Structures are given as C-alpha cells and as structure tokens.
Amino acid sequence: MISVLFVDDNTDLLVQIRTFLEKTGEMRVESVHSIKQAMEKLKGRAFDVIISYEQIPEVNGIEFVSDMNGIEFLKYLKSQGNTTPVLLLGRRGGNKVAMQEVYNGLEITLPKGGDPRQYLVEIVSLIKQTTLRKKAERELKVQNEQLAIILSATPLGIFQVRNGLVEWVNRPFVSMLGFEESSLIGKEVRSLFRTPEEYDQVCREFLIRHDSRGLGYSECRLLKKDGSFLPVHLQANPLDSRDTTRGGTFIATDITEKQKITDALKESEAKYRDVLQNTQSIIIRMDTQGNITFFNLYALTFFDYTSDEVIGRNVVGTIVPQKSRVQHDLSMMANDLGFNAEGYAVNVNENVRRNGDRVWIAWINKAIRDGQGRITEILCIGNDITDRKRSGQVRISTDSWKDLVVGDTDIREDIFDAVFHICTEISIEGREGKPVGTTFLIGDTASVLEKSRQIILNPFEGHRPELRVITNPELKENIKALAQLDGAFVITGDGFVEAVGRYITVDTSGVSLPPGMGTRHNSVAAITSVTKAVGIVVSQSGGGITVFRDGRILKKITL
Question: Do residues 13 and 111 lie in contact, with contact meaning Cβ atoms separated by under 8 Å?
Fold first, then answer.
C-alpha cells in the first residue's frame, strides 16, 4: 500500500484525481487543504509520495495568497532533510494542467475538461514509479553505507581512479599514507609514486602479472604525507583491461613487515654465503642424484678443483671414487634423510682428491625441502678426519668424535679405537674376497650377557686372559676369521673378549630404523637401548659401518 499526502486546493480536477487514487485500492490517501496543514502533518509521520498544487488557483478572478507555493514547499522539505518524492500540479495555459515529478523532471499533461480517466491511469503509474524509484534509492543508500562500513573495516587500502585522478578512498588507505581524505580526492594518482617512470612500470606490470583471480598486481612503493614511501602489494581491477591508466579500483596491502623480512633475509643470505665460502669446513650441496649444485671455497681448495670443474657434475667421479660403495649410499641417502630429517650425527666416507689421494671425511648431511616437504637437495658439511700420523695405510681418525660415543660408559677410548679399526678392515677386505657382516658389543658386559645367549661354542672359552685382549696385535686375524660366524662379539670396556657367537634376545618391536637395515641392525639398536653398551655393525651387503648407542644410530661410515 502506497501512502499519499494529497494537498487539495478544492478544485474539481484535484478532487477527481484524489477520488480516483482512493478507488484504486493500492493507495492510502490523506488529504489536507493547504501547504501549512501538509507541513504540520509531515511532522508526525512519513509518506511515500506527496501530491501538491504548484500555485493556488484563482477563483472568480481572485487569487488567494497562501503562505507558500509548491516550489517554496519543496525548498522547505529540502531544508528539513525530507527527501519524500513530490508531484506538483500546475496550469500550463489554455486548457492544460500538468503533473510533474520534480526530482526527475517527469511530466504528464492533463486536458482541462473532458474525460480524464486515461490520464489518471498514467498518474497512478507515475506515482508507482516514483515510489519504487525512491525505495530503490533508499536501499542503494543503505547498501552503500554498509559497503562503506565494510570497506573501512578491512585492513586493505582501497581507492578508485578515473582518468588519472583519485575519485574515492577508504579510511585504511587514508591512514596508510597519512593524508587527509580531502587532499587525496582529486589528486593525480601518478603523484603517489616516486617517479613517473615507476608509475609507468607498475601499469605495465598490471598487464603482464595476474594472480589466481585474474587481477593484475605489482609490488611497489607509494608516497606518504611525511615524504617517506610505503611498500605495498597493489592489485588492480581496471575499467579497461588493455589500459590501466584509464582507471579502476585498486587494492593496496601494506607489506612493510614482509619487506623487512625480505631485506633481513637478503642480508642474512649474504652473510650466509660469506660464511659458507670462508669457513674451514667442506660444504657441498647436491641434488638427490648426487649432482653438485654448490662447492664452497674451502672445498674447492681441499679437493683441488675450480668451481667450473665441479658445478653440475656428479660427486661420483669427482670426489667419490668410481667404484666406491658410496654410489649405493647416495641412492639411499634421500630415503635416510626422509626417515631422519636431521641426518646422522656423522656419516664417514672415503673420498678422493683430484690428485688421487684417498681421504676420510666425516659428513653431516641435512635435507633441503620444498614447500610440499619433498627433499630436493642435500647439504653436506664435511671435516677431514684422515689419520696421517701412522705410516702405511691411511686410517680414519676418531679423535674428533669418539668422545661422543664412549662418554659416560665404561669403555676406554683405545679399546673403542681398536674395535673400530678392526671393523674398517673387515669392511674393506672381507674374507677370502667375500664380504663379511658382523657385530661388536662393547661395554656393560654383564647386562649384555644377561640379554643374549650363546648360539655356538665360545671359541675364546679357556684361553689365557692376555690372549683375549682386543689390543693384542696377534688377535686381530683371529677376530677377522671369527667374524664370519653367526652372532655378536661381546667385549668388555677394558678390551677383554668375553664371547663370540652371542644371539641378542631383546625385543626389537620398539625399534625404528631407516629402510634397508636388517635384523642385525635392529637387534643391536634394541640391546643398546636397554644397556650402556656401544654397538658396531658391519653390513655384509654394503660394507658400511654403523655405530649405535642408546638405541639410535650415532655414526654411519661408508668405506
């Protein structure tokens, strides 16, 4: 139902119009007989539309003087903030009477005299259109107000540009730049950039760089009121996708913190590269296939290569001998690192310098992952542990790491060294040309014997004690020969060979080791987890040496 305030001048025509409107059943008409009465009525309630005379008519040649005419009435309504649509009735000379919607310039002319019904239908239609239009305007105003609230609540700076001039800005954008809103409106958008060339570059980037939503974007700096520049990620929704200079809607995200982090990372990376190049450790990066992607300055000097001679080449054939077991280890390294993201404490390999010299390097390997967690590269940090104090065969020095193995145990360092070097010889030589796998358990002998059992006659049973000491040079060959038997060697912390051929009875279900390690490794991991013993396993399949303590791999050596 449309509510109508009808200012009736008591002429026949207005009476006809009012009567017709009332009979439509779609309008509720309230009549007043003067503009003064209309003004009083509007103080107490609102109407959808007002119909009023434009000028009070003459009666018998006498013109009545009212307080105000229709135009003055409109001025009054505007001064009161009343935006109700007004239709004015006025004479247009001769026999014509016009009804016009003042705010939108619409006009219907009614003939004076005759049957006015068809025109009255048009009046009804005009009233409906006016009412609907006003309703749509009110709804649009509410929506715009809500949108303004939303756009002001977002942390994003939003502004609109047309023909190079800023037309509208939200509050966050004003706050970002520190300007007053009035000083931004009408400002040339080009002046918000450091230079005209930078503005042109940003416009070009909008055309060639698009995000997942298809919006052009650029990372740039905008001028603030204090003369400083704000780093922003700027997105563009242009009026013309082929020419962003024509204008559009732009969204600015403050990336000050991101820029600080980026700058800090750049500085950190520069320092990192400097450290890598000048550290006294061998630092190499390679992909999972063993292709070298980085060689620091110390590594180049140590192996006697230039950067061009190694970058892009495989480690096998450069720093790893062609027929080395390390080739197999490289294929397993990514899997091992995937199992244990930190790698092993030390992975000792036999490497070769350019002149053919064999060296032992203790490597710490770290996985480098992509955004999905996949290993893409391996960072290898190595230290030369070649023992050059002895004449003859080059051996692995344990000086830099054995204290981590035997610390807080009953194992003497010289005893560990003796067992370890026997293991390296078994790994390299095997027995009669065949690879041999074996296990040594050192220290905490009582607990080890309690958690194992004899599976063969103990070959050392009844021998004199001095012939059962591991440091006795005459015992080494016997140890190598007995390594072919099943079971583990049990050696006390002071070097006494307690037994050979022991079967470990500890439950291994709680052990978790990388793929490729068998029963022997699992058993040793299990027994070292429940005793203070140190276990050394020589793998028959690969010849690698693995050192266990506290149920975990402490060292992995590839010979």
Answer: no
pLDDT values of the chain reduced to their tens digit, one per residue, 559 residues = 888 888 876 667 677 777 888 888 888 888 888 888 888 888 888 888 888 877 765 544 444 445 577 778 888 888 888 888 888 777 666 556 666 666 554 555 655 555 666 666 767 777 777 777 777 777 766 666 666 665 566 778 889 898 889 988 888 888 889 988 888 888 899 999 988 889 988 988 888 888 888 888 999 999 999 999 999 999 998 888 888 888 889 999 888 888 787 777 667 666 666 655 556 788 899 988 889 999 988 899 899 999 999 999 998 889 888 765 544 454 444 444 444 444 444 577 778 899 988 888 878 788 888 888 888 888 888 888 887 654 455 577 787 778 889 988 999 999 999 999 999 889 888 887 788 999 999 999 999 999 999 999 999 988 888 889 999 988 989 999 999 999 999 999 999 999 999 999 999 988 888 877 889 999 999 999 999 999 999 998 877 899 999 999 988 887 6
- What burial class does residue 216 get, using C-beta atoms within 10 Å of its C-beta: 0-12 exposed, 13-18 middle, 19+ buried? buried
**Which of 373, 371, 351, 368 lies closest to 360 in space, CA to CA?**
351
Question: Which helix (DSSP H) or strand (DSSP E) does residue 477 occupy?
Answer: helix 476-482
DSSP state of 408: T
User: How many other CB atoms are found less than 10 A from the CB of residue 413?
Assistant: 14
CA distance 489 to 476: 13
Q: How far is CA 42 from each of CA 6, 286, 469, rounded to the nearest angstrom?
A: 12, 85, 116
Q: How many CB atoms lie within 10 A of CB 258?
A: 13
Residue among 61, 134, 79, 136 at smallest CA distance from 102? 134
By the 8 A CB rule, do 290 and 310 touch? no
Question: Coil, helix or strand for 64?
Answer: coil
List all residues 6 or more positions away from 77 whose beta carbon is below 8 Å from its beta carbon.
42, 50, 83, 84, 86
- The two beta strands, 229-238 and 346-352, are unpaired
- CA end-to-end distance (rounded Å), the chain: 96
Q: Which H or E run contains 548?
A: strand 545-549
What is the token pair recorded at 165? Answer: 């001039």
Q: Whole-model pTM above 0.70? A: no
Q: In 3D, which of 382, 347, 342 has the Cα closest to residue 366?
A: 342
| CA separation for the pair 312, 309 (Å, rounded) | 8
CA distance 189 to 160: 10
Please give, one letter per residue, the 3-state secondary structure of 79-90.
Answer: HCCCCCCEEEEE
Calculate ∠ Cα 170-175-177, nearest 5°. Answer: 100
Pairing of strands 438-442, 488-491: parallel
Residue 316: CB atoms within 10 A of its CB come to 17
H-run or E-run covering 314: none
Contacts of 313 (CB under 8 A, 6+ apart): 291, 292
Q: Among residues 104, 68, 56, which one has the least CA distance to residue 83?
A: 104
Distance of alpha carbon 204 from the chain centroid: 27
User: Hey, what amino acid is at 300?
Assistant: L
Which tokens in the block code for residue 395? Answer: 């051996």
Backbone angles phi, psi at 531, to 5 degrees: -135, 175
